[in-house]
Amino acid sequence: MAEKKFKETRSYETIMNGLWRDHPIFSMVLGICSALAVSNTLQNAIAMGAGVTFVLVATATLISLLRKLIPRRVRMITYMVMIASFVIIVDLFLQAFFPDISASIGPYVGLIITNCIIMGRAEAFSSQNPLGLSILDALSNGIAYTYTLATVAVIREVLGFGTLLGYQVTPEGWTNWVVMAMAPGAFFVVALFIWISRTLTGIETD
Amino acid sequence: MLVNLVMVFIAAILTHNVALTYLLGMCPFISLSKSLRTAAGMGTAVIFVVTLTAIINWPIYNLILVPTGTELIYYIVFIIVIAATVQLVEMLMERFFPVLQVAFGIFLPLITVNCTVLAVSLFMVIRNYDYVTSVVFAFGSAVGWIVAIVIVAAINEKLKLIGDIPSGLKGPGIVFVIAGILALAFLGFTGVANV
């Protein structure tokens, strides 16, 4: 029996869909709230990305294992409670080990609960697929979310604060683009990103 | 006291707009700002649910969770209250106000995942508002959200008539650009009121 090439397996398919083709932020436009709000510095973006990835993988594992036991009618509320429990873990972890980050992203950690990526993957993928694939899917979506957040954050932090992870990177006499650190900057950078990635991938909406 | 309440209300709409300053409730913002009608429908439903959940969540947090020392689980409690409220409102509306049900009933199930609802409850806890202030704040935030989405939807509708948007920017892209410009405009209100 000839072994299938890795490129033809479902795992590869799942990973590629998560990382690029069905990119959660650009092509599906999900999980935007937190992507905009915490991408003002790279540190916040990485913390948020790690938090979301953890919650994604944890809920995917649990939901995939329990997928035959959860009655369809109450599945939404069940997912919500699972997600909320894991978010509490993330919140307490940040408060205990990274109090600075916890203070600066504050309520947005709680809002991971309503991040549609998590609910979306739970509903569309892990409630119907075996454990291994579900974890792969969750992981690739989480990584895609994190690298997007980090890229937006690099642009916003360098232009808005003149720093990167807290270190000065801009030359002497640099004037901070204050607007980049605030809400409008987030909108513009994300708009630019969507424009570029949609042009590259050829996705169009009317 | 009254001045304080008015200040909280104005701040929630103009200077600390939940959509344009805190960037919340963006998922429905993107998907529903194609037409003015749906934007207004969703906005009305949001006002209703946000205010109602704040009215319910405040006593639950301050009278049940805090005295029993279980503040830790407030995320779970809040999200269940929100989901239950949405369900209840939907059922009551179907039974008693079928007209309203037709007007914005379809938006209700979507509200559970609208971060504005949860965020307003979380802000209310973080800022230690008293009961009346919380309710006024929740109402103001929701009004702020509807103001933002209606303006963006209206601009978006007009823009479609002129056409000529680059194909990659169509849909969500252009909504972000409009929202960004609007957020810039709202920066002009800075200093009018503070939270």
Keywords for this structure?
heterodimer; A: 206 residues; mainly alpha; two-stranded antiparallel ribbon; 10 helices; 69% helix; B: 195 residues; 9 helices; 74% helix; 0% strand; globular
What does this structure look like?
The complex is a heterodimer of chains A (206) and B (195). Chain A is mainly alpha-helical. Chain A has helices at residues 10-21, 32-37, 42-66, 75-97, 99-105, 107-110, 116-126, 131-161, 178-181, 183-201, and strands at 163-164, 167-168. The longest helix of chain A is centred in the last third of the chain and has 31 residues, at 131-161. Chain A is globular, with a radius of gyration of 18 Å. The N and C termini of chain A lie far apart (47 Å). Chain B has one domain. Chain B has helices at residues 2-15, 26-32, 36-65, 74-96, 98-104, 108-111, 115-126, 131-162, 172-187. Chain B is mainly α and 195 residues long. In chain B, 74% of the residues lie in helices and 0% in strands. The two termini of chain B are 14 Å apart. In chain B, helix 3 (36-65) runs antiparallel to helix 8 (131-162), helix 7 packs antiparallel against helix 8 (131-162) and helix 8 (131-162) packs across helix 9 (172-187). Chain B has nine helices and no strands. Classes of the chains: A mainly alpha (206), B mainly alpha (195). Chain A binds chain B through residues 29-34, 36-37, 76-77, 80-81, 84-85, 87-88, 91-92, 106-107, 110-111, 113-116, 119, 179, 182-188, 190-191, 194-196, 198-199, 204-206, and chain B through 20-27, 29-31, 72-73, 75-76, 79-80, 83, 112-115, 117-119, 122-123, 126, 166-174, 176-177, 179-181, 183-184, 187.
